[in-house]
Design goal:
Blueprint (H helix, E strand, L loop, with lengths): L1 E5 L2 E3 L5 E8 L7 E7 L6 E7 L4 E3 L7 E6 L4 E6 L8 E9 L2 E4 L3 E5 L2
Parallel strand pairs: 2-11
Antiparallel strand pairs: 1-3, 3-8, 4-5, 4-9, 5-6, 7-8, 9-10, 9-11
Length: 114
């Protein structure tokens, strides 16, 4: 299984970005896709996850601003990020869990700065 994340970049505070993560390889119908973020010197933080059935969960820090969604036909998960803050600056990594195995993408950098 390979995961390819994209969509990061530089955005001003209050702006929006949409991240994508496409999974390839043997993808089972039951899985969970998760976005994490990592900044230097801090623990990796779970941002949001979505199950193959569509159930979602969010970190308190992003509730009401970020929306996770997925296209099962394309094995792709999205993260729509609105009202971005400088504190959202991080490398965003996607993760796929299926059959007790975990797979990681390479990450995409999001920088929120004026």
């Amino acid at each position: 299984v390979q995961l390819q994340a994209s969509g990061g970049g530089l955005v001003q505070p209050g702006g929006s970005l949409r991240l994508s993560c496409a999974a390839s390889g043997t993808i089972f119908s039951i899985n969970t896709m998760t976005w994490y973020r990592q900044t230097p010197g801090k623990q990796r933080e779970l941002v949001a996850f979505i199950t193959s059935g569509g159930s979602t969960n969010y970190a308190d820090s992003v509730k009401g601003r970020f929306t996770i969604s997925r296209d099962n036909a394309k094995n792709t998960v999205y993260l729509q990020m609105n009202s971005l803050k400088p504190g959202d600056t991080a490398v965003y990594l996607c993760n796929l869990r299926q059959s007790a195995r975990s797979y990681w993408g390479q990450g995409t950098l999001v920088t929120v700065s004026s």
